[in-house]
Specification:
The structure is a single chain. This protein has 472 residues and is mainly alpha-helical. The protein folds into two domains: 230 residues, Glycosyltransferase (Alpha/alpha barrel), CATH 1.50.10.10; 163 residues, Glycosyltransferase, CATH 1.50.10. Helices cover 50% and strands 11% of the residues. It contains 16 helices and 18 strands. It has a three-stranded antiparallel beta sheet. Helix 8 packs antiparallel against helix 9. The longest helix has 23 residues. The chain is globular. It binds 1-deoxymannojirimycin. 1-deoxymannojirimycin binds next to helix 16.
Amino acid sequence: MEAQVTAHKLHRWALVVCIICVGGGSTSLAQSPDRKKLAAEVKAEFLHAWNGYKKYAWGHDDLKPLSKTHHDWYPQPLLMTPLDSLDTMIIMGLKDEAAATQKYILENLSFDKDIEVQNFEITIRLLGGLLTNYQLTGDKRFLNLAEDLGNRLLPVFNSPTGMPYRYVNLKTGKTRNAVSNPAETGTLLIEFGTLSKFTGKPIYYDKAKRALVETYNRRSKIGLVGEWINVETGEWTNTDSHISGAIDSYYEYLLKCWLLFGDRDCKRMWDESLVAIKQYLEHEFYRPRTDQRPVPVDGFDELWYGHADMNTGRRRATTYGALDAFFPAVLALSGDMPRAIRLQRSSFLMWNHAGIEPEEFDYREQKITSPGYPLRPEIVESTYYLYQYTKDPRYLEMGEKLWRDFVQHCRTDVAYAALKTVVTKEKSDSMQSFLFAETFKYFYLLFSPDKTLYFRNVIFNTEAHPIRKFKR
Ligand code: DMJ
């Protein structure tokens, strides 16, 4: 009798694990995805989009894939797409393309321009790209460009609090926009810190670290940060707290800077932040059964992270989105696999709601609240991390499903296009450079053999530019 009860319990547990592991999709292990074929497909599709960029937008920041014209972020281009793409080419073994792109960047990229740029975007895409390419190729000219760019960005930190202004003129150093957010004040240390390590000049590390610490120091009594903060007064101008856009990568960098540099302050700040995130943002969600799925043992079946007021902890919204889908990767990196696995399952439910993920989704109402899909990588990134940590082939199945939907809905005759709405799948005339830096890279790494890039030796910046961990 006792044996029967134990067997019953075990069976029930196995079922729960099975559902929690991936959810939404099939749990069959009969036919594992053909990784080699999938990796080759990703590489071919990368080239398809890259060729479109080359044909219609060469020398500019981005391709507009529907009108087949180009888009520059500022009055003069900064080669966003080539620089964001180069390390992916190198990782994919696209030697000729990589050599030609490297040559073009090194001969044409200059930051001596009278233009105002957004510090955060330039740091994660360009400074991050330059540093990774220096590490991958050993070409000192990448480091020279990185140092020049780092010096031109430094004036952003000259605020009364040390938190950066959002914009800076690359020639004059004039700054503007004092109201910023934790993602922009706190997602700089991987790049600026690495620049310090490579040049031996501590100023970059120190400035970016101070900005991160000053942001953390302004957390509320219950340990949460808000969405918008004035870097001159240090006052919050919006107290909505969440893990989504405008805050997301602040948390990511607390953990990653501990792992990349061995910085213990970052570890302490991450550990303490996580307590508040779990207490106030985490949402164990029980959905009444309308089908035959078994009720999970703990009574909850979905794990989400919603919005709360940073001072009171009161829940403000039950929305989660494409940007939030980075968090399973961060949880996995921190060692919290049970939560990472469950949250990834929720991201996948969100993706499957319309066959591709929306920018924002109300998980309580099961309703899309912001329908665009700008080719974001976060859910793919988390699938890759979870596969690396578990080696569970069901993450390859999940990755294959994401890949097939992505190609089906976003491919155009010349490249890839964002979706105006995931409901009708109507496309929009935009293809941001993170498609090359992140989305294709994470798909490729998910399906490639481990030796393509040793996951445990590197830390990816938030734009997926990998940096080798520094010796402690
Ligand atoms: C990228 O530029 C970075 O991943 C950033 O942290 C968030 N937004 C995009 C991708 O979605």
